[in-house]
């Protein structure tokens, strides 16, 4: 995965809260599953922040001036994204949103900007206060993606993913898939309170995987808003394999087998490794969000 060295990055789409502290915040959600989106599931299944062990969410700090200035100064060009992890996240967020900003009008809709918040340890959101243990997640209440970069090390060491820059890009694109679902009304309409292999909870996650694949299909041809040229210049078969590997690593069956020694499909919330790979591949192969209807 390579970005145009000379392309400008839009750091306004990423808020850097690394090093910020949340006074008095309590955050007890655990799990560490990629895209677990426990807060999102709280919305879907009618579980409020208090029931999830979260605080009210009104005490979260804004980004510190120093941390935001650091990312603004350090992540200026595509060359920075090719050498720094935090800058790469900025570039991926830019690319993903460039695609959806162009796609929504073609389907008669309007895309709404969603910022990614990079944090460490814990973060305050409109959905409550969450720890890094939750993994990357999307909060519909403030329409933001939350990400602790240390998760990508856990993805390799705890969940056995091969890693690589595109594994990170897959995770980010998946979370923006939830933003797309929020804008289209899918999240609210899918609420039914159930878990299991055929549940709406699983279908929501698989659709987000498919949307991530759709973006990947268009990543090297999507024009940047400012220059009209693609921000991403190269995406190889090895990159896609890294994404597929990450998708499989966070399949419910793989995680259950690793953590509890047995697979219980009746408690699935994200889908099996094979399903997650299948739907990411469907999006990547077709490049068409219309092929991502996991509810049919």
How would you describe the overall organization of this protein?
There is one protein chain. This protein is of the alpha/beta class and 296 residues long. Helix content is 44%, strand content 9%. The protein is built from 11 helices and 8 strands. A 4-stranded mixed beta sheet has the order 2-3-7-6. Strands 1-8 form a two-stranded antiparallel ribbon. The protein has a two-stranded antiparallel ribbon with strand order 4-5. Strand 4 (122-125) and strand 5 (128-131) form a beta hairpin. The two termini are 33 Å apart. 52% of the residues are buried. Residues 24-63 have low confidence and may be disordered.
Q: Which residue ranges are poorly predicted, with pLDDT under 50 across at least 5 consecutive positions? A: 24-63
Radius of gyration: 18 Å
* Assembly of the depicted chains: single chain
Question: What string, H for helix and E for strand, traces the elements in order?
Answer: EEHHHHEEEEEHHHHEHHH
- Sheet-strand content, in percent, reads 5-15%
Cα end-to-end separation? 33 Å
Shape: globular
Topology (SSEs and partners):
Layout: E1 2-3, E2 14-16, H1 38-44, H2 65-74, H3 78-81, H4 85-106, E3 115-118, E4 122-125, E5 128-131, E6 137-139, E7 144-147, H5 151-157, H6 165-184, H7 186-189, H8 200-218, E8 232-234, H9 237-249, H10 252-260, H11 273-286
Parallel strand pairs: 2-3, 3-7
Antiparallel strand pairs: 1-8, 4-5, 6-7
